[in-house]
Amino acid sequence: MAKDRDIINLNKTESIILNRVKNMIEYVNILTRDGKSLLFRNYGDTEIDRDLLAGFLSAFSGFIKEISQSDIRSTQTEDFKYYYTILNDIIIVVCTDLDEKEDQVYSKINMIKGKFIEKYGKLLEDGSWAGNRSIFADFQKELDNILLGQIKVSIIGFGGVGKTTLLHLICGKDINLEYVPTITADIASYDGEELDVHRKIVFWDFAGQSNFRSLWQSLLDGTDIALLVLDSTFENLNSSKEIINDILDKYYKNTLVIGIANKQDLPHRLTPEFCEKILSSTERHPPIKVYGMVAINPNYREKILGLLRDAIKQVEAKNKKSNNSK
Ligand SMILES: Nc1nc2c(ncn2[C@@H]2O[C@H](COP(=O)(O)OP(=O)(O)OP(=O)(O)O)[C@@H](O)[C@H]2O)c(=O)[nH]1
Ligand SMILES: [Mg+2]
Question: How far apart, in whole angstroms, are the C-alpha atoms of residue 194 and residue 181?
Answer without folding.
Answer: 28
